[in-house]
Specification:
Layout (H helix, E strand, L loop, with lengths): L12 H8 L3 E5 L10 E4 L11 E6 H10 L6 E4 L18 E4 L4 H27 L4 H12 L3 E5 L4 E4 L9 H7 L7 H6 L4 H7 L3 E4 L6 E9 L2 E9 L10 H19 L11 H10 L6 H10 L13 E2 L7 E2 L1
Parallel strand pairs: 2-3, 3-4, 4-5
Antiparallel strand pairs: 1-5, 6-7, 6-10, 8-9, 9-10, 11-12
């Protein structure tokens, strides 16, 4: 398959701070920058090099000299916390992302940074292989879950759950429970109540992030397109404090995964993704005997508003004696 625009995982300062974990003493992350980096570089001397691909590492003794002598915004990882100054303190530095880590030999930090960048680059290389070789959707979603460390769902525009994370525990989430069960026509009552509506997001070409009106927990939903046609959506559910917003590093990883899925569907070879309506999927499940219980079939007909004499006038009868035929 041909590649579209070049996508490679680079690390934001929020991702770096998360990866450094307990080494971080303090951080000042403005949350406004889109700068992303491929490697770390130790700063020698008092002048800061122009940052393109690398994030700068400095000591606390170098810190203020770098700030004073820089003609542009800096992102820095500083070893130790520098002394405060009356004329300018750390918190007054606007539009800079700065991470302060515990005292250590600079090369210990550089080695750790190398390991962090290498880990994400390895994840990226393996993900690229899956994307461009057309791996199954379930494999894609499970690998993406390892990257972002949060439950993910891929669904089509008819709310059929195509793949959900199988490698992460996520309980006590009413919306996730129905997604794991396939969502779609069996849960039309929930779909009708659920916000945001996928079609509305698709029409406005926007994503949605906020508390689900079904589960009361934080989710993010983004529409996926193929040849400018909305074909499905990527959803992410919050872990940890589930009523709080997503951490910025999680959203950075989510955006990377979304871009990779966009590339996946740009090369998608199948013709059936997102084309099964609720009725069509129901009919297929009955014919292929994935749905055989008469009471369940009756309930589905009710949810799909296909019971005879309903307002839409679609009489549907399930032939009990054959158990395989659905006549409309």
């Amino acid at each position: 398959n041909k590649k579209g625009k070049e996508i490679a995982m680079k690390l934001s300062m929020d991702m770096i701070a998360d990866a450094l974990g307990e080494w971080v003493l303090m951080k000042k992350l403005c949350g406004m920058g889109k700068r992303i980096y491929s490697y770390a570089k130790f700063c020698i001397g008092e002048g800061a090099q122009t940052q393109k691909e690398h994030v700068l590492v400095c000591t606390k003794e170098q810190f203020w000299n770098l700030i004073d002598n820089s003609l542009e915004r800096l992102d820095l990882i500083c070893i130790g916390i520098p002394k405060e100054r009356e004329e300018k303190d750390i918190h007054s530095l606007k539009l800079m992302d700065i991470i302060f880590v515990k005292e250590m030999d600079p090369w210990e930090l550089i080695n750790r940074m190398g390991e962090i960048f290498a880990r994400y680059q390895n994840l990226d290389q393996e993900f690229q292989k899956m994307i461009y070789h057309g791996a199954p959707e379930q494999q894609i979603i499970d690998y993406a879950t390892e990257i972002v460390r949060a439950p993910l769902c891929l669904m089509d525009m008819n709310h059929n759950a195509i793949a959900t994370s199988s490698n992460i525990e996520h309980r006590e989430d009413a919306l996730w429970d129905v997604l794991k069960n396939g969502y779609g026509y069996k849960y039309m009552d929930i779909i009708r109540k659920s916000e945001p509506k996928l079609r509305v997001l698709a029409d406005k070409k926007m994503s949605a992030e906020g508390l689900s009106n079904i589960s009361g927990q934080y989710i993010k939903v983004s529409i996926l397109y193929r040849k400018n046609r909305a074909i499905g959506a990527l959803g992410m559910h919050k872990v940890g404090e589930r009523t709080n917003k997503f951490e910025k590093y999680t959203l950075d990883l989510y955006e990377y995964i979304y871009e990779m899925l966009t590339e996946y569907f740009r090369n998608y070879q199948g013709n059936d993704f997102g084309k099964k309506t609720g009725v069509g999927k129901f009919v297929q499940d009955v014919i292929e005997r994935r749905t055989t219980d008469e009471r369940e079939i009756d309930a589905c007909l009710e949810k799909l508003k296909l019971k005879s004499s309903n307002a839409d006038g679609y009489p549907v009868q399930y032939r009990k004696n054959m158990g395989r035929s659905l006549v409309q």
